[in-house]
Design a protein that fits this description.
The protein contains 3 helices and no strands. The chain is mainly alpha-helical.
Amino acid sequence: MSQRRERDLSFSERMKLRLHAGMCRHCANFERQLPLLGEAAKRLAEQEDDHAV
């Protein structure tokens, strides 16, 4: 799931991921949380940059 945010997945990879996330509630939850985690990491990096100056 995190690779999907880093690169384009092949059709086969996307279908496997969709099938798995449809059956695995833990992965489905993680998939929903990824955008929030990415935004939090981005904001943390921005704060660290502001304090480094």
